[in-house]
Design brief:
Layout: E1 4-11, H1 19-26, E2 35-42, H2 52-66, H3 71-75, E3 79-83, E4 92-99, E5 112-122, H4 131-148, E6 156-164, H5 168-176, H6 188-204, E7 227-232, E8 237-246, E9 253-260, H7 266-275, E10 293-300, E11 307-308, E12 311-312, H8 323-339, E13 345-348, E14 359-366
Parallel strand pairs: 2-3, 6-7, 10-13
Antiparallel strand pairs: 1-4, 2-4, 5-8, 6-8, 9-14, 10-14, 11-12
Helix pairs in contact: 4-6
Length: 368
């Protein structure tokens, strides 16, 4: 049985800052050698060349090593950075670490937060956007579930991934071996990698059957309600973190999920918080959270019909500001209005992640 989880959200004060992680360790909240995953937002452009993800990754890994963790072990920790804090979204990190709970602790009889991680087989550039990638991701999700101590896919509430996208270099590599790639547009490959990964998650959890190559990015009725997929240039495998609830692990925290049906669906966020186990009135207010919400994790996407609730918008036609940044700022504002805290994990590019024009929401709460 995996260990109980301690989870905390910390601000990032500058692009290379990991001081709040260091503070948690020095204050004895968690041990450096027991950190198992970090998921955060950095302040770059969120694009293919967003170097802030690499800077933050280095800063947090170096902080763990400086606090006594083994460098080789630290190198294997899944650290997933989503670039771009558009609008009011504030740079931050959510840190997961194992902790000890007494054998006779009553929380072990309840469903409590658990996490497991895995790395997929190498994803070749010609795999991205095709069923080969779906299968490799699905296999890694199943391994991460097992490591989390989760038997029932219904107890999985959040799957955060990081996968490679296509670059000029990797496209050239595929061609040199006589292979083709799904797209030669590197920015488009971000959406592609995320969407194909989400289908792999959905297959692993039994949400959908194995799709066909032609379904990827085209049949938006196929999606996972718990996938949160990010991509970048810093790896060549799928990095998978499965978060859910299980009995026997104990601890203070629970996770739940729901979906936003569109970019303005505050009820979807509140539903995820309720699903995590926090009792709320029929018409909740930020004050009802009472400091017990650790964080929420959302994916968002501009609806392909160019509308929200029957009203036309210009995001998909805007040649000055890419829709990635516009929808992220919009949903970030909606989410912060619910939580009362701009440090929320809102990530764009949600193909096959939640319903068209909406997206999945996961919430972690402290149930005491």
């Amino acid at each position: 049985m995996p260990s109980a989880i301690e989870v905390r959200k910390v601000p990032i004060h500058s692009v290379a800052d990991a001081s709040e992680l260091t503070r948690l360790i020095e204050d004895g909240v968690m041990a450096a050698d027991r950190v198992i995953a970090i998921i955060g937002k950095t302040e770059g452009n969120g694009g293919v060349n967003d170097y802030t993800r690499i800077i933050a990754d280095r800063a947090f890994r170096e902080a763990l090593v400086e606090q006594g963790a083994d460098p080789e072990a630290v190198a294997e920790i899944p650290i997933v950075w989503s670039g771009g804090t558009d609008g009011v979204i504030s740079p931050h990190a959510t840190i997961f670490a194992t902790t000890d709970v007494a054998d006779d602790d009553p929380s072990k009889q309840e469903m409590r937060l658990t996490a497991g991680f895995a790395m997929s087989e190498q994803l070749l550039p010609e795999d991205i956007g095709r069923t080969a990638m779906v299968s490799k991701v699905a296999d890694a999700v199943r391994v991460a579930m097992e490591r989390a101590g989760i038997d029932d896919p219904a107890d999985v509430h959040y799957v955060q991934t990081k996968t490679p996208l296509l670059t000029i270099h990797t496209i050239r590599d595929a061609k040199s071996r006589g292979k083709t790639v799904w797209t030669e547009h590197t920015h488009e490959s971000m959406d592609l990698s995320n969407g194909c990964t989400a289908l792999g998650i959905a297959v692993a959890l039994g949400e959908i059957d194995m799709p066909r190559d032609e379904d990827v990015m085209h049949d938006r009725s196929l999606y996972s309600a718990v996938a949160s997929c990010s991509s970048g240039v810093e790896l060549d495998r799928a990095q998978v973190v499965v978060v859910g609830n299980a009995t026997g692990v104990g601890g203070r925290y629970r996770i739940g999920h729901a979906v936003m049906e569109d970019a303005l669906d505050q009820d979807g966020i509140w539903a995820a918080i309720r699903d995590a186990g926090l009792e709320l009135p029929e018409r909740p207010h930020t004050s009802d959270l009472d400091g017990r919400l650790v964080n929420v994790f959302l994916k968002c996407e501009a609806s392909q019909d160019g509308e929200v609730r029957g009203r036309r918008n210009a995001m998909l036609d805007d040649s000055d500001v890419h829709w990635h940044r516009q929808i992220k700022a919009c949903v970030g504002g909606v989410t912060a209005a619910v939580t009362g805290d701009p440090a929320v994990f809102v990530s764009v590019s949600a193909a096959h992640q939640g319903p068209e024009g909406g997206g999945p929401v996961a919430a972690i709460v402290d149930v005491g």
